[in-house]
Amino acid sequence: MSKILIVEDEAIIRTALRKLLERNKYDVSEANSVKQAIGKFQLTDFDLIISDLRLPGAPGTDLIKLSGDVPVLIMTSYASLRSAVDSMRMGAMDYIAKPFDHDEMVAAVKRVIGKANAAETAKKGNKKSQAVAPVKGMIGTSPVMRELYGKLEKVAPTPATVLIHGETGTGKELVARSLHALSPRADRPLISVNCAAIPETLIESELFGHEKGAFTGAASTREGLVAAADTGTLFLDEIGELPLEAQARLLRVIQEGEVRPIGAIESRKVDVRLVTATHRDLRQLAKTGKFREDLYYRLNVIQLRLPPLRERGKDVIAIAEALLERFCEEMSKPLQALSPEAVQAITTYSWPGNVRELENAIQRAVILSENDQEISYELLGIDLDLVKTDTPENHEHDSPYQSQLTPADSGQKQSSADPQEDLSLEDYFQHFVLEHQESMSETELARKLGISRKCLWERRQKLGIERKKTLSTTK
Predict the structure, then answer these.
(1) What is the pTM for the complete model shown?
(2) d(Cα 404, Cα 57) in Å, to the nearest integer?
(3) DSSP 304-326
(4) Of residues 85 and 264, more confidently modeled
């Protein structure tokens, strides 16, 4: 059972969170401030610390420095997005924006604990892999990437056939080049072939060569790319697109170590280290007869999985900042920074095109940006349904931080609701609005809840809490 510490000065929220997490089989403790947390508990005893960003006394980010390797999940509001991004850069594992519902919180907790456990497993089980230099041209130190680097170090020196599997744009060719560079064949040729880019009628001739007169247009004898890679490495990208006839010839190269050009009588011995890549499920293709099953088993000696960008955690920001620096330099522009909204968009977006799509977005943003401005979310051009609650139009008078309740406010709240009640976060929201809307304007209500006016309005609509019209004339 994972142990979680909640640090939150609002008793109702703290109690609701504790009961929510206990229902999900977590062992939960509470504190109302950083001072109480460090005075009452040994922080390293916990698997996760969930802390509000704004606390009386010291801010929640102080727990990042005090907790050692224990991950910290920061609770914040959209209105304090910049502080949330800063907390991530200070070492917070993740943040969750208020108001959030039960499912969002439970998902965030599972995600953060899962990341921490994976990192710890990688650290204990494969310490050597952490010292491995990253693939040249590839950025990232997430657990899944450290695991990949470790496998590369083991596999590269061997002659084993390697199948690289990963979505489009994840950097499969970079891994293939690294396998070659770290192998004893590094000073020999690396021949790269994109099987999807060569017409089906020419693929066999390109790969295996042909004799003069072997077919119409074969005016001279031509050596194929397999023979050109002799003593080196042959990288076949998008191997799933290879026609069945060419698959049979490739199988012979693997089994017999020889290649016979089209129209030739004799075969030629070749010593080729074969590396292939695909984004398709070759096993499924083999079951449907679209890929030779015997070839699949020959190719799948060692499989390296390249994780998509959405599984690489903080790597996405490191990659984005490296690309930003590169494109600013290439275009002779001063080094720019990503705005907090851009950082949120980059970390929220699923990146179906992976690193290639991110590269295009950053390049486009640098081209369209002015020299003295931050890279905004709009410049990235990401197709993301991002809730834009942090705009002047939505809360022009709101504080940029979540306000703390005054002692008088706290007294009102305590008297009307026992913090031991099993209130959900939506219950708390509804309770607070109904209790205070007679005496507070919409701006004041939003500020007390740590959200924007637009978000307050949307929450009213969702919960069916009508706004008191008398407030518009009195406030």
Answers:
(1) 0.56
(2) 11
(3) EEEPPGGGSTTHHHHHHHHHHHH
(4) 264
